[in-house]
């Protein structure tokens, strides 16, 4: 099916976004967005762009224009929440006038994210609607994700954890993959015979042929490593 997805790390530059316990939202969402991009690399027929790759300020209308000019299939804005120290959880937003496709996308992506966050006892604050500029001004399905509360000490600690963010990024990508029926790239394997790399392949028949050939030549050591 294929898809073109624009990931929008919120804030940046002079706009730190929410802050808590010395952590800036702009930094968290940029790291998370880069991890999302990395996880999309496991899939076929998907193109990904980020509205920013570094710590720079971008106006809200510029973020929407970025996606509109590329005629992408989905726009996802990445944020952290902030309120009182006791506020907690995850929530997603679409525009009140969103299309039925956008509603369906929100349902699927939200579900996959919560399947991951439930392992950490993160509260589901629900699927919501709001007249946010990046949701209003984009011409394609658009979703804004509020990934935990930076003002909550426990959730702040999770947002500092690179492995947690990596799992969250993977959950977001799995949700998008489900929406667009993306297929994973075949796993690549490296065949090494007596310390010499023979070749890299994803095909079982080539692996079998290489191993049989190595056995025929009385190889001392045959290694198969997943890349």
From TrEMBL:
GO CC term (a single one): outer membrane-bounded periplasmic space
InterPro entries the UniProt entry points to: MurNAc-LAA_cat (IPR002508), N-acetylmuramoyl_amidase_3 (IPR050695)
Keywords of the record: Hydrolase
GO biological process: peptidoglycan catabolic process
Database matches in Pfam families: Amidase_3
A GO molecular function held by the record: N-acetylmuramoyl-L-alanine amidase activity
Superkingdom field: Bacteria
Residue ranges of domain MurNAc-LAA in the record: 64-177
Cited CDD domains: MurNAc-LAA
Protein name: N-acetylmuramoyl-L-alanine amidase
Lineage, broadest ranks: Bacteria, Bacillati, Bacillota, Bacilli, Bacillales
């Amino acid at each position: 099916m294929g898809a073109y997805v624009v990931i929008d790390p919120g804030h940046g530059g002079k706009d730190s976004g929410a802050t808590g316990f010395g952590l800036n939202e702009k930094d968290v969402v940029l790291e998370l967005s880069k991890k999302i991009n990395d996880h999309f690399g496991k899939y076929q027929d998907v193109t990904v762009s980020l509205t920013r790759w570094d710590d720079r300020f971008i106006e809200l209308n510029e973020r929407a224009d970025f996606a509109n000019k590329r005629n992408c299939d989905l726009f996802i804005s990445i944020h952290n929440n902030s309120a009182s120290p006791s506020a907690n959880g995850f929530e997603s937003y679409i525009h009140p006038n969103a299309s039925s496709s956008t509603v369906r996308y929100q349902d699927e992506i939200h579900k996959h994210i919560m399947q991951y966050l439930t392992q950490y006892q993160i509260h589901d604050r629900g699927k919501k609607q709001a007249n946010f500029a990046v949701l209003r001004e984009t011409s394609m399905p658009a979703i804004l994700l509020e990934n935990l509360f930076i003002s909550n000490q426990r959730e702040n600690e999770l947002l500092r954890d690179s492995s947690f963010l990596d799992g969250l990024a993977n959950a977001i990508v799995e949700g998008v993959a489900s929406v667009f029926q993306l297929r994973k790239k075949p796993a690549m394997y490296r065949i090494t015979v007596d310390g010499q790399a023979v070749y890299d392949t994803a095909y079982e028949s080539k692996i079998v042929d290489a191993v049989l050939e190595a056995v025929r030549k009385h190889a001392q050591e045959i290694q198969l490593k997943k890349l």
